[in-house]
Amino acid sequence: MRISILIAIAIASTACGAATPAPSDPPPVGQGPTAGACKSVATFTSSAAPQLQQDGCAGCHAGADAPATAAFNLTNLGKDNTAACSQALRDVNLANRPQSAIIQAAAGAQAHKGGKVADTQAFTNALLGWINNE
Ligand code: HEC
Q1: Are residues 35 and 73 in the same domain?
Q2: pTM of the model
Q3: Dihedral through CA 66, CA 34, CA 28, CA 51, nearest 10?
Q4: Which of 33, 41, 62, 105 can pair with 112 through a Cys bridge, CB separation 3.0 to 4.6 Å?
C-alpha cells in the first residue's frame, strides 16, 4: 500500500513537468537522516547484537538473501559491531523509537518476508536496550 502510494505520487509528479527526472525508488521505511555513526556501540554489542544473532536475522541479512541484505544489512554483525551498528541505525526511527523498522519488521505490525520472532517482547526489549541510547 505504502509503495503504491509513493509510485502514484511519483507518476503524478512527473506527469506535469516534462523536464523533471523520475525520482529513484523510495528508500526503505526507516532509512534516512538517522544513518550515521552510533552513539552507543557498547549497548548495540551487549543488548541488540546477541538478540539479532539468537533470532537468526543474519541468515538472510548477511548476504544469503540479496533483497534482504539490501533492505537491512547485517554483514558486519559479530565481526565489526561499530560498522554493524551504524548499518542497523538506518532502520531506527529516532523520532519514535518503538516504531523503528528494525523492531516493527521483526516484532510488530510491519509486513516482513522474514516473519516475526517467537518472543516479540524479548526482542523489542533487547533492541530498545540499544535504541534508547541512540
Ligand atoms: C528468511 C529470511 C529473513 C530473515 C530470517 C529475516 N529477514 Fe528481515 N527481511 C527479509 C527480506 C526478504 C526483506 C526485504 C523485504 C521485506 O521488507 O519483507 C527484509 C527486510 C527487513 C528489514 C527492512 C524493513 C524496512 O522497512 O526497511 C528489516 C529492518 C528487517 N528485515 C529486520 C529483520 C530482523 C531484525 C530479523 C531477525 C529477527 C530478520 N529481519 C530476519 C528476509 C528475512
Answers
A1: yes
A2: 0.80
A3: 50
A4: 105
